[in-house]
Known about the structure:
By secondary structure, the chain is α+β, with helices and mostly antiparallel strands. The chain has 16 helices and 20 strands.
Amino acid sequence: MYNKPYSSRRRVAAAILSICCAAGFSPRAFAEPVKFADQGPHWNSISRKEFYSRDQGARLMPFSWFKALKRADGTGFLDDGLSRYGYLPNPDSPIPGLPVGFLAALDNEGGATLSITCAACHTRQIEIDGAPLRVDGGPGIVDLGSLFNDLDGAYDALLKDDAAFKPFAVSVLGGSPSEEAVKKLKGEVQAWYFPFHKIMFAGVPKPPATIWGPARLDAVGMIFNRVAGLDIGPAPNRVIEGNLAAADAPVRYPFLWNAAIQDMTQWPGFAQNGDDITGLGRNVGEVYGVFGIFHPTPTGDPLVPLDYLKDSSLNFPGLLRLETLIKQMEAPKFPGPIDRKLADKGKEIFDRPAKEGGCGPGCHQEIKGEPRLCNQNTWKTPVQNVETDARENLRLGRSGDTGVLKGQIVPQPPFNELQATDSMANILSVAVVGSIAQGPLHFGPMQFLPLVEECLRNEPISPPEKLEFFKQFLGSQLKGALNAIFRFEEVARPAYEARVMRGIWATAPYLHNGSVPSLAELLKPPAQRVASFKIGPAYDLANVGLAREQTKFDSYVYETTADCGGEKPDASGNSRCGHNFGTALPDEEKKALLEYLKSL
Length: 600
């Protein structure tokens, strides 16, 4: 049975705006207009506007609750547009005041739900001599950990204080709600808060543990927590507390340009990538990580024993459209002058073998990768051990209770059944592939037509042949292309992906865990790299990275470690060890290499 089709944009906007007006929500004053980096002829204000607010299916909480929520000082949680966490103003938001990557999505009952998209964490704004420059698809300089912890604290305080809950209820319900209505609302908030608090308390690290801080997130750890800890236990709350663990291996947000064509992805390089099918697998996992609704439910039918998409909020058209958008996004051009002669010398240095201080062959280079069903021209993404921080890689070995997923087939050879206790890797693989495989039946096959059109984009094919391919695609090829999409067992430990470095100038701090503030620092031996630095948007174009002085985030300081060269790798989560390429070059060659990296 297909779900009802999505409502028209006009009806959605009217419903959401009526909620905003009823609550007295008004626009906040936005900062001065920013300049935008040059990201190619296919990336413009229209694509940017859609990227910032396109729904993927995340469902965090009812939007009316979010608008009514207060901070400890009595101000509205949303009053500053979440700029205190680094989120960026979006003047074109359908809901005034919501920042880039946040939206109010229409739910199944006609209300609005707070939703987060990939743009929230993959849009960057830097400041060059005080002037703001927006880089779409860049690693966000945002503090999601503090946002989550503050939301947890605000709801905890709200539920413990009847005097505070009453005005919250008035804001949410409107008018003069009855005692019964207030009691009902409080029960709904408590039921929502129970799993939310569980994952925030257990999953999001707090000092003195290895916190995420600005510009970092342990996304894989939180996805494991969300899927295995909150979604696959027994009804009604579905929580398996034993599957929750500290997500304490934070990494820098990756950049999105060219992400669609690299043949592997995720920092440890465990996920196949390179076409819209594998991209869908990557993005479904991301939606579940930011609270997309996932309620796998036994059916009693031996042919289809589990309904992966019961109550699902996955927005497959939105996910496919977002993948199309990031293909239009090119690497940002360096905003300053480039000495072309010096850059040419730098390229020669870059292409030298590693033992001579270069990166070639085979690292960060544009060479043909492993072909995918719908794209034969991927970029190879080497996964290499260059002695950097080992923590994220080591955390991939978690296991847990498989809950209602027990007995489902793990979608990779030898296709064993999921055991009562199994790896988090297998749990995630089953959840993601099962959800996508049931998508055409649950949501309707036409929502997957863009996948087929992508596969056939460069193929001369008649309409009857196209229809036959569509049938085969939905019948077997879709699921077949997703088999072994996550190759956790093949990940070398500890090793991380080495992506093509177009636009690398705009993505500081560097290394997978963001432990080096600039490319100039990266060209120093680890012991000589700065041990601590501030994180924020102020940028240093000469050293290619974060400026020494920052004022954002109350001058948060990132303290790194450098226990390098021992019998075991540094796995503090904050290690600046490794990636010794170019560290022994003379200063004049380092200068040339930096000039080349600016030009990419």
